[in-house]
Design a protein that fits this description.
Blueprint: H1 10-22, E1 27-35, H2 37-44, H3 52-65, E2 72-75, E3 81-84, E4 89-98, E5 101-110, H4 117-129, H5 136-145, H6 149-161, H7 163-170, E6 173-177, E7 194-201, E8 206-214, H8 220-248
Parallel strand pairs: 4-6, 6-7
Antiparallel strand pairs: 1-8, 2-3, 4-5, 7-8
Helix pairs in contact: 2-8, 3-4, 3-8, 6-7
Length: 258
C-alpha cells in the first residue's frame, strides 16, 4: 500500500526523545482513591480557584519536603548512585496546540512547596497560554530537540544520567492527567523518578490518583504512606490556604519559579 511520508515535527521529536530517555526506567505503579471533600469545599468557595495540577504539584512537594526519598534520583554517571535534591523541582505536562498541531511540553516549577498556590498556578498557566519562546523551559528543551541526532542523544544522556542535570531538567517529580479531556487512568512515562497522575473528581468527593516510581529508588510501602500523607495535606494545608485566599480577596500574582 502506497502511503504518505510525513516529516517529524520538532514537537513530536521532543516526545520521541523523551520516550527514548524513559525506556529503561523500571517503573512500578500504585493507585488509590483519595477523599478530598474539605479541599473541594474550600476550592468551590473561590471565584477563580487554582487548577488541580497546581494543587497536586504543591501538595506532593509538601510531602516530598519532609521525605527525602521523594527528592532522590538514580543517577548513572560518573558512577551509579542516589542523588538527593535539596529542594523540590516539579515538571508539569502542558497540553497545547501549536500551528494546528497538538503537543505536550514540560513546564518546570521550582520549589513549589515554597510558593503560594496562586503562584504555582500562574507558572502553569504561563506554560499553557504564553508563546513558546517566552517560556524558558520550552526554549531550552526545544533547543536540545533541534540538535543533530548524535548531539541530541548526547544532550539527553547528560541530562538524564548526571544527578545535578537530571534535577535541573526533569526534577524529582512530574504531574500529569487527562481530567480536562474526560479523565481516565493514565500510566505516563518520564525519566522519573516519580510521576503523579490524577483523574476527574467523582460525585462522592473522591479522586483516583496513580503514582508511578522508579523501583530502584524506593519500594511500595513508602508510596502507600505517601498517599495517606498526600490526602492529609490536600485536606489540611492546601484547603487552609484556599480558605485564607478567599478571606484575603483577589490579588495580582506574578509568575515566578521558572
Amino acid at each position: 500500500m502506497r502511503g504518505t511520508v510525513k516529516r517529524i515535527s520538532l514537537l513530536r521529536r521532543l516526545i520521541i526523545d523523551l520516550m527514548h530517555a524513559s525506556r529503561n526506567i523500571p517503573f512500578v505503579s500504585l493507585s488509590r482513591t483519595l477523599h478530598i471533600r474539605p479541599l473541594l469545599e474550600a476550592r468551590a468557595a473561590l471565584a477563580g480557584p487554582p487548577g488541580y495540577a497546581a494543587i497536586f504539584v504543591k501538595a506532593f512537594a509538601i510531602v516530598a519536603r519532609d521525605e527525602p526519598v521523594l527528592r532522590t534520583l538514580y543517577a548513572k554517571w560518573p558512577l551509579p548512585c542516589f542523588y538527593e535534591l535539596p529542594r523540590n523541582v516539579a515538571m508539569v505536562a502542558i497540553s497545547r496546540v501549536e500551528n494546528g498541531e497538538a503537543c505536550v511540553l514540560p513546564q518546570r516549577v521550582n520549589h513549589p512547596d515554597e510558593l503560594s498556590l496562586a503562584e504555582v498556578d500562574a507558572v502553569i498557566r504561563k506554560g499553557k497560554e504564553a508563546p513558546i519562546n517566552e517560556v524558558p523551559m520550552f526554549r531550552k528543551i526545544l533547543l536540545a530537540s533541534s540538535l543533530p541526532f548524535p548531539l541530541r542523544r548526547l544532550a539527553w544522556a547528560i541530562g538524564v544520567n548526571f544527578g545535578r542535570q537530571r534535577g535541573n531538567y526533569f526534577g524529582n517529580f512530574a504531574v500529569t492527567g487527562v481530567a480536562a479531556c474526560g479523565g481516565g487512568e493514565l500510566h505516563a512515562l518520564s525519566p522519573g523518578p516519580y510521576i503523579l497522575s490524577f483523574d476527574v473528581v467523582k460525585p462522592d468527593h473522591s479522586i483516583d490518583i496513580i503514582i508511578r516510581w522508579d523501583h530502584r529508588v524506593t519500594d511500595a510501602a513508602l508510596i502507600a504512606r505517601t498517599f495517606s500523607r498526600l490526602e492529609q495535606v490536600l485536606n489540611g494545608e492546601i484547603a487552609a490556604e484556599l480558605r485564607a485566599q478567599r478571606a484575603a480577596g483577589p490579588k495580582t500574582v506574578r509568575a515566578v519559579g521558572l
